[in-house]
Design goal:
Layout lengths: L5 H13 L4 H21 L8 H13 L6 H14 L6
Helix pairs in contact: 1-2, 2-3, 2-4
Length: 90
Amino acid sequence: MNFENLTALYHYFDQLADHEEDDDLLFASSYIRGFIALSASELGNESQPLSAQLAGNVSEQLASSKHELTPQDQVLVNNYWQQLLPSFKY
């Protein structure tokens, strides 16, 4: 996965919902999107590139909120986040 900026990533998430992907993927992408949106609002705007700082903030937030998830959901979210991480510029 490669995204030019945050807007492109949001578009990708929207397409997942539009194409009725499996429930686990929709859950993980929606959960992560919330943390991305929160971090992005603190760092810039929706046209900002996917930066290492943004990825770091999201990773920290995901780690600190994992108690909100069941062990199975933690695995889903973590695996999906690991797939997205290479899209962020380090």
